[in-house]
Amino acid sequence: MHSKGKLFIISGPSGSGKSTMLAEVFEKIDNRYFSVSATTREPRPGEVDGVNYWFKTREEFKSLLEAGEFLEYAEYAGNYYGTLAEPIIKQLEEGKDIFLDIEVQGALQVRRKIPEAILIFAIPPTFDELERRLRKRCTESESKIRERLDTARREYKEAMKYDYIVVTDKPGEASNEIISIVTAEKCKVSERKYLIGEA
Ligand code: 5GP
Question: Which atom number of ligand 1 is nearest to the Cα of residue 155?
């Protein structure tokens, strides 16, 4: 018997470098599934429907919500974001490791439903660095940037409820930290007791 898939939830303020880090993680590990969320936010330049997000109108999002399709959902910076439950359940059953890139309210909702989920909070080395990265990205107006910084301050307070913190400093380092976490979680006695059961 082999270990079942595990559910890893990655949160961190926008500008934390999560997306780059996760792209690196996916190049380095197999048998994983990245959940594509639904959102009412407008696509940013280069974003593709079904790849980065499922882009929905508010009405479409509401119908999915009422039909009970979401494992979790949250309102963030004026838009709705939600994780569709069905693909997650299917992939976990197939033994894949699942990665969700979701904000803190949603992460804590998933933890209530799936207590064995592993929560990882990703942050740059300093808060000043977070602000610098947000400004460099420059896809948002000044008021949006300020709004995202205020949200980030609130999110940092929730980090104490997480299992791990990874620091998105030098390229490659944070993805290595994630891979170390994945490896450690799979080496737990609870995961591998089938190896000693017959002795
Ligand atoms: P962005 O608009 O920058 O792509 O994402 C904004 C925030 O929404 C990020 O913190 C991201 O992790 C979060 N997010 C993306 N998808 C979901 C989701 O399905 N559920 C929740 N709760 N948050 C999400």
Answer: 10
Q: Does domain 7-196 have CATH number 3.40.50.300?
A: yes
- CA 195 from chain center: how many Å? 31
3-class SS at 165? strand
C-alpha separations of 8 from 92, 101, 148 in Å: 11, 9, 24
Q: How far, in Å, CA of 66 to CA of 25, rounded?
A: 34
Q: Is the pTM of this model over 0.85?
A: yes
> Which atom in ligand 1 lies closest to the alpha carbon of residue 106?
22
Residues 6+ apart with CB under 8 A from 2: 95
pLDDT in tens, the chain (199 residues): 555 789 999 999 988 889 899 999 999 999 899 999 999 999 999 999 999 999 999 999 999 999 999 999 999 988 999 999 999 999 999 999 999 999 999 999 999 999 999 999 999 999 999 999 988 876 778 888 898 899 999 999 999 999 999 999 988 999 999 999 999 999 999 999 999 987 7
The residue whose CA is least distant from atom 12 of ligand 1 is: 102
Q: Where are the domains of the chain?
A: 7-196
